[in-house]
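Incident log, structure service

09:12 report received: a user says their structure output differs between two submissions of the same chain.
09:20 pulled the input from the user's history:
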Amino acid sequence: MNILIFDHSHYVTEYLIKHYCEDNINVYCIEWNEHKSENGFLHKYSTNDHQVLGEINIFDNNLDVIVTEGLFFDVIINNLELRRNVGLEDTDPEQWHQSMTRNLHLPFLLIQSVLDQIVQGGQFIHLSSTIAISGEGGDVSYASHKSALESLSKSLSREVDMRSNVISVSDEVIRNPQHITDLSKFIYQISKLKHLLLNGQVLIFDNGETLT
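09:34 re-ran on a clean worker, output below:
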């Protein structure tokens, strides 16, 4: 079983790597250069081992390192995000574009590029935010593009022969280390269920706070 995670630097990824490696499952992570978001490096994690396999450039559709390694993935976890906490009046077009690139455009390009590398019965899991539902948080670009990502996931669940679901996480959960541990365990558990009936859904991970 192979797992591919978009965004090596996100702290949720650290917990996921630990869970998968303890279960002798290979984890591949894409680490992005913050200064030039189209360039990234593919990392491989396995029990007691970490390798940097090579560089990719998603805008050039350069995923040669994945093809060269002969990799096929059972689960794709999209953990990409960029959040600035900047409201409507203070958001300039460049900030809007950067948010769209990281939160929506890069996931779209990556998913499109790796479709042929996903095994039959594979699944996508996208991490989003309850801000996409509530609009709270004072970051209009982040809320807008995470909401669009949730729609992208629903479309994927209909267009391709694999499951695609979103886990929408509240700020309160993200700020609590124990909740982060629980979240990563939940992602790990559902990723191993090949016949899970959930598809095209947004699963809200917020202790009930969003709708109260």
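09:41 both user submissions now match this output. Likely a transient worker issue. Closing.
09:42 reviewer note: Strands lie at 2-6, 26-32, 39-46, 49-57, 73-78, 118-129, 163-169, 202-205. The chain has a mean pLDDT of 84.
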